[in-house]
Every structure is written in C-alpha cells, then in structure tokens.
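Entry 14. Structure prediction run on the chain below.
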Amino acid sequence: MNKVEIAIDTNTLIEIEKNNKDVISKIDKLELNGAEICITSPTYSEYYLGLMKLSLEKKEKGRQRLDKYKILNTTRNSSKLLGEIKYTLSKAGTPTPVFDLFIASIAMDNGAPLVTQDGHFKSIPNLKVIMI
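Output returned:
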C-alpha cells in the first residue's frame, strides 16, 4: 500500500524545528495514519533562506533536517494551477504571497493536503487544507 503524501507548509516546518510538541503530535498522528510527510520545493527554498543568517554549523544542521523530507516539485500542471489560482484570487481581491501560491499549486498537483497555520490557504479553491 502506498502512503498518502501530505505537504507541510513552511510555518509548520518551522514549528517542528522549534520542537512545538502540539504540532509534532499532530504530524505524528498523520504519519501513524499512513501519511508520508513531504515539503514542496518552495518550502525548501523559503526555509533555507531563513538558515542564511545562522552560523555555518547551524545552517548545515538545518539543511540536513530539510534533506530528510521528500520534495514535491513544480510541473507544467502545477504551473498552470498557479496561474489559475493567482487569477482567481486577484479577481476576488485576495492577495497571496507568491511562495504560498507555488506551495499550494504543487500540493494540489500532487493531490497532497497542505498542513499549515496560515488561514489564507483556505481561500484557494480545491486545495485540501489541514489547519493545525
């Protein structure tokens, strides 16, 4: 049986790395129910950007933690989805950061629910969101 992929947003990844017991417990439950926890390539980039201000040793430890996750990448279809999402949200007057649009479109393309703490993801049509 294949595991169900679940994408975690950057803010969720940060909370895991901060050792937030509540967030870790919720992620553990997802894994116990057969989920494979993944990150999108923009999540990797966004998190790695935060590592830039750290010492070389801390940056390397952070990178090693990032490398433990399966990465979901952009495709032609996710690129189309991003354009459609951006258009829909712009028409509705709902600005959304571009990193979040990439994260959402890649999660959707992979059929992966997105675990996040950002409520604005709920305004993206057809995105399965798990708020924690």
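DSSP finds six helices and five strands in the chain.
Filed with the rest of this week's runs.
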